[in-house]
Amino acid sequence: MKLSTKHLLGIKDLQKEDIETILSTAKEFKEVLQRPIKKVPSLRDITIVNLFYENSTRTRISFELAEKRLSADTINFAVSGSSAAKGETLLDTVNNILSMKVDMVVMRHSASGAPHFLAKHIPAAILNAGDGINEHPTQALLDAYSMTEKFGSLKGLNVALVGDIMHSRVALSNIYLLKKMGANVTVVGPPTLIPKYIKEAFDINVEYDIKKGLQWCDVANVLRIQLERQNQPLFSSLREYNLSYGVSRKLLESLGKEITIMHPGPINRGVELDSDVADGTQSIILNQVENGVAVRMACLYLLSDKN
Ligand code: CP
Predict the structure, then answer these.
(1) Which of 55, 68, 85, 174 has the fewest Cβ atoms within 10 angstroms?
(2) Are residues 182 and 259 located together in one domain of the fold?
(3) Residues 189 and 163 grouped into a single domain
């Protein structure tokens, strides 16, 4: 099984068959993760560097665990404490690391397009762990895996992406993936957080009324308000945002149907999602995190020379 691409830079570049291959391979690796010995030799003698130029909890730990479960050798690079802090360029840093015979690079960067730039200049396979406001492909894949696990198929599923669509790489990767797999997509949020071109560009629905958006969907993937990416205020206060667009227990109970709640994390509790919803029975947020390891094992394995 081979993917049609050498790198995993974004869902935009993947074929439907690539996504199906990743999800079916992840299913096999999830079975491995249920065993008493959760380790396979699939990537023995492969060396992977995890380059994180931006903060991360879930993605960084999940990739590192996936690499260890596959028996790869791993190196972790964080920008603080490295020579990048002294002004070394991204390309110099990576070329120095590659000269130590590294096979694959996992990279998170605050600049959109940083992994695409590297892919043009280095021979190693690159996996994008989130680039600026562009894409977060493994998050969309683990979201897809989690929805498929619960609903059997993405085809015809009604998925609402709720909140800060404008600044969300998770939203863009999910839109690409869900459209390729035949799901119906509605973005829900305030007009200031939804790009004006999005409806025509992606052939999706836009809904500014959160109750209507939630009544329409089977699954609501609630996105983090990304204050660090907003150069100017796009709503008057977090309290007002919570009152207008926060997903609360009261709102869910008013829908007259049960929907599934997802969130990529980290959660702003009491802003986009109330704690009793995040931790409630309709939430599959921790299943998403669990599935992330198997999905990243699949991506690493399928992009490696060992496959
Ligand atoms: N979902 C996600 O990307 O979380 P982290 O920023 O903690 O990796």
Answers:
(1) 85
(2) yes
(3) yes
